[in-house]
Amino acid sequence: MDLSNVAVFMDRDGTVSKEIGYVNHPHRYELLPRTGLAIKKLNQSGIKAILATNQAGVARGYFKEEMIGQVHNKLEDLLEAEGAYLDAIYYCHHHPRVGEGKFKKECNCRKPEPGMLLQGKEEFGIDLERSYMIGDKISDVEVAHRVGAKGILVLTGYGIGDYQNAQDDWKVEPDYVAEDLFDAVEWILMDLEARED
């Protein structure tokens, strides 16, 4: 089964790493348990592992854009130590209502807008209808469905609260609700096998 044009897009905070609010220093950044194992499984399967994260802390003035790069360097180092890697990292530093200058704007990249997933399609020839988005907010599921992908809600980060308290307000339903990123990846691999049969 050729999975080279399949991607798993992942939210960052609360999905790949601990949700601690705005990460304004690399020392505050920590992976969630089993994240390295989950991404390594994707690497071994040939599926593209892509980070897609809203980082409006820049627009809000909480930190400079360079901080995002520093945090992502730490993320890549932590994954490398576990034998895993990301194929791409996309982030949106805009906010439609807050901030100044170029950071305050309506954009196509802030989830649930699909810009980051479309960027993956453009850069890697991704078949979005065979692909997935994993996140701890229902907006991550929403962005997946906008491009024909499957959306998975993890119960880490904001996910457990969203699942238990906000379901009545959801505009979309997750294709799967996972304990964590590793559980989500295991389900994806089974789902892909079932779809290919």
UniProtKB/TrEMBL annotation:
Its cofactor is Mg(2+); Zn(2+). It is found in: Cytoplasm. Zn(2+) binds at residues 92, 94, 107, 109. GO terms for biological process: carbohydrate metabolic process. CDD domains: HAD_HisB-N (cd07503). The active site is at residues 11, 13. Its EC number is 3.1.3.-. The record marks 53, 111 as: Stabilizes the phosphoryl group. The record marks 110 as: Contributes to substrate recognition. Substrate binds at residues 11-13, 19-22, 53-56, 110-111, 137. Mg(2+) binds at residues 11, 13, 136-137. GO terms for molecular function: metal ion binding; phosphatase activity. Keywords: Carbohydrate metabolism, Cytoplasm, Hydrolase, Magnesium, Metal-binding, Zinc. The keyword Thylakoid does not apply. NCBIfam families: HAD-SF-IIIA (TIGR01662), Histidinol-ppas (TIGR01656). Belongs to the gmhB family. This is D,D-heptose 1,7-bisphosphate phosphatase. It comes from Orenia metallireducens.
